[in-house]
Specification:
This protein is an alpha+beta fold and 326 residues long. 21% of the residues lie in helices and 28% in strands. The protein has eight helices and 16 strands. The protein has helices at 23-30, 36-44, 119-127, 160-171, 247-254, 270-273, 278-285, 316-325, and strands at 2-4, 7-13, 48-50, 68-74, 90-93, 97-102, 141-142, 151-157, 176-184, 191-195, 198-200, 208-210, 219-228, 233-240, 292-300, 307-311. The strands form three sheets. Strands 5, 6, 7, 8, 9, 10, 13, 14, 15 and 16 form a ten-stranded mixed sheet that branches. Strands 1-2-4-3 form a four-stranded antiparallel sheet. Strands 11-12 form a two-stranded antiparallel ribbon. Helix 1 (23-30) crosses helix 2 (36-44). The longest helix has 12 residues, at 160-171. The radius of gyration is 21 Å and the shape is globular.
Length: 326
């Protein structure tokens, strides 16, 4: 990586295992600070070139082993959340809070790599004047997050009072949350707990890990719902009792049962793919995101104290994966 005034240049070389990979995926994996959406935009803007100097503008371009690519990343501007009319799947809403079913691929907060088109931008536009201000600013109060590629239910506050009340419940672990995950293999025992402090990975500070020293206590309860593809994978319900960064993904990977499609904490398990029917093989090897969906959330309304429990249907991509594996 080289830096020049106002921009950064990354040089990435495709290896033998990258043959046939999409260019946007290759570059996103190599540049951990850039989302795939951001990489796609840079490609389409003509900021990616091959070693012969030819500009490539197709994100779906299939790479060949040994090819070298240069990607120019302009200096990021400080993100200022602005209202953007982006469709939201609203599950519940009142004067104090809103619960949405976040799609996979949507980032929660604006950041240098994702300056707009985030959930915050969408909520500011959707809620409009009903936002009375969080900390004196007319913005939604985000009390918990889902990873970009995790789909499912999220609650956000519209008022300071609701924000404080929800934050206290999350801090006290009084919010019920449950996720559906498709993982490699079959965890044993079929139901139990995964416990282990989570902190920064010493080898890669952009990743989290179960650590022997330091970190923060983390506990995840799980149960296997279905064994899929003759044990090559399984559908698992996970209930995190704490809220650490990447908790479910890290805990399952530590047990050697990472999420299918998780390109950070676990790649395709080639030994589990051997002997599978082509449809199952292709579905597992080619799943486009980590297979994790937040399907349930329950909390006490921060103003009325009424218990609210909401559920979300499993999204079509994970549903299709499960049906193919069955």
């Amino acid at each position: 990586m080289t830096a020049a005034r106002g921009k950064t240049r990354h040089t990435i070389r495709a290896g033998p295992r990258d043959a046939g990979e999409r260019l946007d995926r290759l570059l996103a994996e190599a540049c951990a600070d850039l989302s795939r959406t951001r990489v796609k935009a840079l490609i389409e803007a003509g900021l990616v070139s091959a070693e012969d100097g030819v500009t490539i503008v197709e994100p779906s371009y299939r790479v060949k082993p040994g090819q070298t690519f240069a990607i120019i990343v302009p200096e990021a501007r400080p993100p200022i959340p602005k209202p953007q009319a982006i469709g939201l799947d609203v599950v519940y809403e009142d004067a104090h809070l809103i619960v949405i079913d976040k799609p996979a691929g949507m980032v929660v907060h604006p950041a240098p790599g994702n300056p707009d088109a985030t959930l915050v931008n969408a909520l500011i536009a959707h809620c409009g004047e009903s936002l009375s201000g969080i900390g004196g600013v007319r913005r939604p109060g985000i009390v918990h997050r889902l990873d970009k590629d995790t789909s499912g239910l999220m609650v956000a506050a519209k008022t300071d009072a609701a924000h404080i009340g929800l934050a206290r419940q999350f801090a006290a672990h009084r919010v019920a949350r449950a996720y559906l995950a498709v993982v490699w293999g079959v965890p044993g025992p079929r139901a139990g707990e995964i416990e282990g402090n989570i902190g920064r990975n010493r080898r890669n500070r952009k990743k989290m890990a179960v650590v022997a020293r330091g970190g923060k206590p983390a506990l995840t309860r799980y149960r296997v719902l279905r064994v899929l593809a003759a044990g090559a994978a399984s559908l698992v319900e996970c209930r995190p009792l704490t809220g650490r960064t990447h908790q479910i993904r890290v805990h399952l990977a530590a047990r050697r049962h990472p999420l299918v499609g998780d390109r950070v904490y676990g790649r395709a398990r080639s030994r589990r793919l051997k002997g599978l029917p082509k449809a199952a093989h292709d579905a597992l090897a080619g799943f486009e995101r980590h297979a994790l969906h937040a399907y349930l959330i329950g909390f006490d309304h921060p103003i009325t104290a009424k218990r609210i429990t909401l559920k979300s249907n499993i999204p079509s991509d994970i549903k299709g994966l499960v049906e193919t594996l069955e």
